[in-house]
Amino acid sequence: MGQCLGVCYREDLEDEYRKEIEQIKHILNGNISKLLNDIEIKMKEVIMKENFEAAIKLKETKKSLIEISQTQIITKIDKLSEDYLYIHKTDSLNTIVILKYKDGKLTEKDIHFDESIYEKDELIEKFITQYYTSPNMIVPDKIHIFKKIDTSNITKLINELKNIKTEIIYKETKDNIKIIEMATSNAKLALITYNHEKTRLLKI
């Protein structure tokens, strides 16, 4: 007994019960930024206490929350294929995240790392050109970017080479803000994994 969070068993857990309900609502609505931030804080606390088992569990929880959130974000209920391209820049490495949607649902994600010193505008142009003109690449109906730049020449090049009619779009919407949050979380997790693997290989 005493394991249920319901107020029917323990009245002193009423506040905790309400907090759990609020967290569930946030997860179902895709609003996980605060939850992820809380987990980050707890991870730092347990690492300081050298409780690495708890840190691993928190990391797994964070990963699960992101995966759940991905299934909640619906961009449009239509028959279009759409890519969302986001670049997360740091001093040493750029992480490029491509979230691929089909019929309004996330179906795939592609992550690349780049060590160039290009400014974000130039990096977006160069990456889109190289990525979407590669021989085996299936170009979506729409490519969404999160920075306003002139992509008319790139669009023309891709359409001519692939004999298609794709669009490269910059548009600020509520859904896009959620997707940016998700892409940022994916980029940070990928960067942590990349750095850990790089450190491990250097020790071999």
From the coordinates shown, what is the CATH architecture of the largest domain? 2-Layer Sandwich
Would you identify the regions where 5 or more consecutive residues have pLDDT less than 50? 1-10, 74-78
How many structural units, i.e. domains?
A: 2
Radius of gyration: 21 Å
Domain UvrC family homology region profile: 96-191
GO cellular component, one term: excinuclease repair complex
InterPro entries: UVR_dom_sf, UvrABC_protein_C, UvrC_RNase_H_dom
Pfam families: UvrC_RNaseH
Characterization of the model:
- With 204 residues, the chain is an alpha/beta fold.
- The protein folds into 2 domains: 11-75; 81-202, 2-Layer Sandwich (Nucleotidyltransferase, domain 5).
- The chain is built from 6 helices and 5 strands.
- The protein has helices at 14-28, 33-48, 52-72, 120-132, 152-162, 174-203, and strands at 81-89, 94-102, 105-114, 142-145, 167-170.
- The protein has a 5-stranded mixed sheet with strand order 3-2-1-4-5, with helices on one face.
- GO terms for molecular function: excinuclease ABC activity.
- Keywords: DNA damage, SOS response.
- Pfam families: UvrC_RNaseH (PF22920).
- Residues 96-191 form the UvrC family homology region profile domain.
